[in-house]
Amino acid sequence: MKKKLYVVLSLVVIAALLLSLNVSWNKASGSTSNANFKVGLVTDVGGVNDRSFNQSAYEGMKKAEKELKIKTTLIQSKQMTDYIPNLQKLAKANYNLVVAVGFMMHDAVVTVAKQFPKTKFLIIDSEISDLPNVVSAMFREEQAGYLAGVAVASLEKTKFAKTTGKNVFGVVGGMKIPPVDRYIAGFKAGVLSEIPNAKVIIKYTGKFDDPASGKQVALSEIAQGADFVFQVAGQTGLGVIQAAKEKGVYAIGVDSDQSYVAPNTVVTSAMKRVDVATYSIIKDTLNGKFKSGIVYFELKNNGVGLAPFMKGVPKSVSDKINKVIADIKAGKIKIPTEVK
Questions:
Q1: What's the whole-number mean pLDDT along residues 31-55?
Q2: Was domain 141-271+310-329 assigned CATH 3.40.50.2300?
Q3: Which CATH class is domain 36-139+275-300?
Q4: Is residue 230 pLDDT above 60, yes or no?
């Protein structure tokens, strides 16, 4: 009897040890799986230091690296001809997800995604819906632009600080592409909703990586009476902010909160959370939830918005913006997406 009891107890102990080893192995296995998961990001020509959407995407990837314990790689494109070889380099190295930042990379992603059907791709700002290994992160930039337009027009009406009351607003775009125009169309509509007879000057530099040209165009708009200049030009827009700072007028940042660039000049920023989109899709891919097609980020899911105002902006303006946000979410305001 004692012998049988000894055998039973021995088996129980062995089973417990095996269960413990199995749990430990599973934990180690999960950790190893994450450590072997590789994400590579290819920037547009603006580079990761554009303080705009390239940097925002990079920050989303680095957050994933830190929190999800994955491996990441950054490749910066110097010119448009770099897109395809940069994407191919990551695909050939068997990266689990390759992130392409920007509308301009559309054709390159289509080409490389077809060459490497087993590699998953995320493209920011461009619609690719017919490839099973590509997901597109799209943003309702017009919503963020509209909020920025309402905000600065309201400040102009209240004769805020350095404003002149001339009702002139400047916009400096980079390339004339859909994401840029959605911002601008929304901004113009927002301004005109508050000041119907306002003058909105819209010019494009044709570049995302040339601060000098951004500054030059902004100075010409300021010379025409603009109290506020909205930059929608990536790294080029840093020159716009510099021009506003030198001339004592206000700038509106884009894509991310750019108040740190010039705290007393950037009144707010029209934001699209490229960092949130990048992190979210990396996490889904890691967890086996990658889904091709188009994912939209907007006010309803905190994918776009307005950065906090600079000090001194009246509470009445903040209250107005909160009301407009609620109306947009409720579908009460129709915002154009094309510049006219």
A1: 85
A2: yes
A3: alpha beta
A4: yes
